[in-house]
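Morning!

This is the sequence you dropped in the shared folder:
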Amino acid sequence: MHGFEIAESILETSGAVLQVEEGSLYPALQRLLVKGLLVGDWGKTRDNRRARYYNLTAAGRKQLNAEVKEYVRVNHAIARIVLPA
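The structure's back. C-alpha cells below.
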C-alpha cells in the first residue's frame, strides 16, 4: 500500500477509532525505511498519481512479530490490574 492507503486502512480496520495523520505517518515510514524494516517502490495509483508503495522486509516482519508479542504481554498485564478476578 502507499501512505494514503495505509492511513485509510488503519482508520477503516479500527472502526474509525485510530486515525493517523500525515505528519506522523510519513516520518514513521521514513524511519522504518532507514532501519531496513520496510522497502519502498515508486509506482502509480489508480488515479495515475505517483506514490511510494511500502512492503515489510524480513527484518520488518520479525520486528513486527516481536512488537505484537510485547503488546499482548503488556495488554494482558494491564487487564489483570484493571479487571481483577
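Headline: The mean pLDDT is 96.

More detail when I'm at my desk.
O.
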